[in-house]
Write a structure and sequence with these properties.
The chain is mainly alpha-helical. The protein is built from 39 helices and 14 strands. The protein folds into 3 domains: 21-201 and 450-764, no CATH class; 205-240 and 396-433, Alpha-Beta Plaits (2-Layer Sandwich), CATH 3.30.70; 243-280 and 316-384 and 911-966, no CATH class. A 4-stranded antiparallel sheet has the order 2-7-1-8. Belongs to the CSC1 (TC 1.A.17) family.
């Protein structure tokens, strides 16, 4: 075979193999049939899921609209319910503005929807810009490829046609760079407006700074106040609480055992009572249907036969060996039992009460209820004693402190100030740490242990990325199952399968297997972050996002692409290694065909599955029926599904990277990406408004990181095009693309330098102004008022009427001299033109007015879409975006008894749980509540057990007591 034939890899012999093996094997790459084999089942699945959603949305509001139905949510967390019709709800849903997610869910959720829109806009612009030019060039390239392969750069033979790719890459990638830049500007302004809003700025966490690796001699409140200044309001110095945590955990476990035993006792007593009452009722009916013969002579003192009281006030069970008297139903309803006696013993013997054999009691049998009550009483006294000792304990301090400042500005000033002179001492500091998200194990690490753990965890993750390539490579080879069946003997049976089945095996199966394989990774990464000493849950999400994106790029993009092609290319390269250059230039673009199937699976298949919520559907309406514990039923019903942004963002960022990498090499991928992203936007928009709970909020920090990750797609695309241009001998496009690569790096570096200081800190110019607004005070010093007015002039975009006044300022250095000289010449020429050529002056003013409107527009003037897009610094600045954040939300306030200890470990202030037991008609629960309430809070409200033993709970009623873990501020 002629290895220099440009048609290598094109369609031959009418082959129908659907795998990527034909990309490099010289046979027909049946990309179209492979895509159809993936598209058909995915569309069927998506249509089925949408039908299920439309039908069940009306019947299962707890699954599909919990944020509109649950009473346990705060008013500002709820969403307005949609109409209950079949299709009229979509119009109302479409009218909900995107800012609703910002005000009712989280900043992360709002920015994720915006990220999907940005990706969709990038794809749509690419379709309008690249498709009209590149698709005809590729289709008529002359390499003879067929199907989708003829629409890739690999079908182009004439290197002169590659100038179009180089020029369009400048236009398209410049648009993407500007798009990313303007989104960074928008994010910074929105984040500042959000963090300075009253609802956020008034939080205790917004005024509290966490310092880690504090030297031992600074673990003193007076010394910390001396160092941090007069603005310090409160200081928490946590201590090691291992003994206290053990006792609190043991108390919770014992309480749950008591609750379970109480439930079993009530259930047994209720069943026995129902059985006795049924038997008594049956005997009464038998006596009434067969009355005994009346005696001839009756005592005048006896009751009359028609008396309603009769002799059935107490019924003795015939098979009761102990001769216990059981009161009738009427008697039980008339008189409640005295709590001093055991009501349950009237229905069940003492031997049937719940019991167990504790190891501490040498395995001897004990009554569970009595034993657990005594244990809880003992644990309560031990916990109280340990807590008192902790107050006066001076040893065992954690090397971390929480410092609350008077205002948000004071906290920002302390956060931005270098605190200690030694390296790594108090260098790690965090602002806005909410109590429920603290990882207390991480706060106990010294600076040396933290460094060692970080290096070890990074090494572990790097090794995971390397060795995870093995299963990813196996998944990649599945896409070439038809080719492997020809080379591997025991896979010969695959060749006998129908083409449709082989298309599913090489299209759907590897994409699904890859998604399942990658779904395991985030949990491992979160555990690694905890081991590495990451102090908060939000920081764990950021850590996971960064590491998981590396996994996605290496495993999903690089490894899968290379192995899917290498599994078929090995034999050909071994036969003639000199063909590697031709194989790369012609077949690398064809590797994009696999990602068409992957995009369909990630967007349509998994997106529609997320819309149906199969997990919640079975959990709440199937598995819920087999749960007998009222506590578990209630908590499961009122717990919203959590979304972890450290897992979600990398998946779709990687989709964007793959799309940009193949945008000019295989432009057809833009269409699939655009459709998938628009569908995902609808799905996530609905779920964020009505289903998901953004419990862990990074305050939008995931968004700029995702934007920076997205630029990796530009690097990949530029490097690949440089290689392909070089192979084909197009050296001028190589130079153009190299220059574009340098420009991309410069823009990327500039964005990182510009964003860095503003990501973690707030500018003082805004914090002081907001503090004055929140405190309701105004500057009383006239000089300060003048300074404030002057600062407002600096923020104005209006030009000065007298530009000559600027020349009176002092000149500093050569740059100042040149600027002054240039300004003087400009003013002199302008005056001369005004005097001698008035018509030119009019024309110049018109031109300047036109261009200045586009270069530096006035925000007060009427704008259009293009102006708003070109100038986010004007039309999306802080003052405008501040209006998006509501100012009428309730103040986030902790209960006073909780607030004073909120930044101590939870075991320091944790209260015993409230036991929930069902109320029975026999009155057993009432007595158990009276007895158990002496040692632990107990209630039988809102939960009932009927005579058939069915537990009925008023699950909609909000009956939770104050729970620190549910606080989100």
């Amino acid at each position: 075979m002629n290895t220099t034939d440009p048609r290598v890899g094109s369609a031959r012999d009418n082959s129908t193999s659907p795998g990527l093996s034909r990309v490099v094997s010289g046979s027909n790459s049946s990309s179209t049939s492979n895509l159809v084999a993936t598209l058909v089942p995915v569309l069927i699945w998506a249509a089925l899921c949408i039908i299920i959603f439309v039908i069940l949305r009306r019947k299962c509001p707890r699954v599909y609209a919990p944020r509109a139905s649950l009473k346990s949510l705060e008013p500002h967390e709820k969403s307005a319910p949609l109409p209950n019709g079949w299709f009229n709800w979509f119009t109302e849903f479409y009218r909900i503005p995107s800012v609703f997610v910002l005000n009712h869910s989280s900043l992360d959720g709002y920015l994720f929807l915006r990220f999907l829109r940005v990706l969709a806009v990038i794809c749509l612009v690419g379709i309008g810009l690249l498709w009209p030019v590149l698709l005809p060039i590729h289709a008529t390239g002359g390499a003879g490829n067929q199907g989708l392969d003829c629409l890739t750069m690999g079908n182009v033979v004439n290197h002169n046609r590659l100038y179009a790719h180089a020029l369009l890459s400048w236009v398209y990638f410049a648009f993407i760079l500007y798009m990313v830049s303007r989104e960074c500007v928008y994010y910074i302004n929105l984040r500042q407006a959000y963090l300075l809003s009253p609802f956020y700025a008034n939080r205790l966490s917004s005024r509290t700074v966490l310092y880690m690796n504090v030297p031992r001699h600074y673990l003193d409140e007076q010394r910390l106040r001396w160092m941090l200044g007069r603005s310090v309001k409160r200081i928490w110095i946590p201590q090691t609480t291992s003994e206290l945590e053990r006792l609190v955990k043991e108390r919770e476990q014992t309480a749950m055992r008591l609750e379970k035993a109480e439930f079993e006792l009530i259930k047994m007593a209720n069943a026995a009572r129902t059985k006795v009452l049924k038997r008594a009722e049956s005997e009464r009916k038998q006596e009434s249907s067969h009355p005994p013969p009346e005696p001839e002579h009756r005592s005048g003192n006896g009751p009359e036969s028609g008396s309603k009281s009769g002799t059935a006030a107490v019924i003795r069970a015939p098979d009761n060996p102990e001769g216990v008297a059981y009161p009738t139903k009427e008697m039980r309803e008339r008189t409640l039992p005295d709590v001093n006696g055991s009501v349950a013993s009237q229905w069940i013997p003492h031997s049937s009460r719940p019991h167990h054999r504790p190891i501490a009691n040498y395995g001897r049998r004990v009554d569970t209820i009595k034993w657990t009550r005594n244990q809880i009483k003992k644990l309560n006294s031990q916990i109280a004693k340990v807590r008192r000792d902790q107050l006066f304990k001076t040893e065992g301090m954690l090397p971390s402190v929480f410092v609350e400042f008077e205002t948000h500005t004071d906290a920002q000033h302390a956060y931005q100030t270098l605190t200690h002179h030694r390296p790594l001492h108090m260098a790690q500091r965090f602002l806005g740490v909410r109590p429920f998200e603290i990882i207390w194990e991480s706060l106990s690490m010294s600076w040396l242990e933290t460094i060692a753990r970080k290096f070890l965890i990074k090494a572990l993750i790097t090794a995971m990325i390397i060795f995870w390539a093995i299963p990813s490579a196996l998944v990649g080879t599945i896409s070439n199952i038809d080719y492997l069946s020809e080379k591997v003997s025991f896979l010969g049976w695959v060749g006998d399968l129908p083409s449709a089945v082989k298309g599913i095996l090489s299209g759907v199966v590897p994409a699904l297997a890859l998604s399942l394989l990658m779904s395991i990774v985030p949990g491992i990464l979160r555990y690694c972050a905890r081991l590495g000493g990451v102090p908060t849950l939000s920081m764990i999400e950021l850590y996971t996002q960064h590491a998981y994106f590396a996994f996605q790029v290496v495993q999903v993009f690089l490894i899968t692409t290379l192995t899917s092609a290498a599994s078929a290319a090995v034999t050909k390269l071994l036969e003639d290694p000199t063909t590697a250059k031709d194989l790369l230039s012609q077949n690398l673009p064809k590797a994009s065909n696999f990602y068409l199937s992957y995009f369909l699976l990630q967007s349509l298949a998994l997106g529609s599955g997320g819309l149906v919520q199969f997990g919640n559907l079975f959990q709440l309406y199937v598995f819920q029926k087999y749960i007998s514990s009222p506590r578990k039923m209630y908590l499961r019903w009122h717990r919203l599904q959590r979304i972890h942004w450290g897992t979600v963002f990398p998946v779709y960022t990687n989709l964007g990277v793959i799309t940009l990498s193949y945008a000019l090499i295989a432009p057809i991928i833009l269409g699939f990406a655009a459709v998938g992203l628009l569908f995902l936007h609808i799905v996530y928009r609905y779920n964020l408004i009505y289903v998901y709970d953004s419990e862990v909020d990074t305050r939008g920090l995931v968004y700029p990181r995702a934007l920076m990750h997205l630029l990796l797609g530009l690097y990949f695309s530029e490097v690949c095009m440089i290689g392909l241009f070089s192979i084909k001998g197009a050296y001028v496009p190589v130079v153009l693309t190299v220059a574009l690569l340098v420009l991309t790096g410069l823009v990327h570096t500039s964005l990182l330098d510009a964003l860095g200081p503003l990501l973690w800190s707030l500018p003082k110019s805004l914090t002081v102004q907001e503090d004055q607004h929140l405190l309701g005070c105004r500057p009383i010093n006239p000089r300060n008022a003048e300074d404030l007015e002057q600062s407002e002039e600096y923020h104005s975009d209006k030009e000065e009427q007298e530009p000559e006044q600027s020349n009176s300022r002092a000149l500093e250095g050569a740059s100042g001299a040149f600027n002054a000289l240039g300004g003087g010449i400009k003013n002199m020429l302008r005056k001369k033109v005004k005097r001698e050529v008035p018509e030119a002056n009019i024309l110049m003013n018109a031109l300047m007015g036109f261009w200045m409107r586009w270069i530096s527009p006035n925000p007060a003037d009427k704008s259009n879409f293009l102006l708003r897009w070109l100038h986010p610094e004007v039309y999306s600045d802080y003052t405008l975006l501040r209006r998006m954040v509501p100012s009428d939300l309730p103040d986030p306030v902790y209960p006073e008894e909780i607030e004073q200890d909120i930044y101590y470990p939870p075991s320091f202030f944790a209260k015993p749980p409230t036991l929930w037991i069902p109320r029975d008609p026999g009155g057993v629960s009432r007595q158990e509540v009276e007895h158990s309430a002496k040692v632990i809070p107990t209630t039988d409200e809102y939960v009932d057990i009927d005579e058939k033993g069915r537990v009925m709970i008023d699950i909609e009623e909000n009956r939770l007591v104050f729970d620190v873990s549910r606080l989100r501020y």
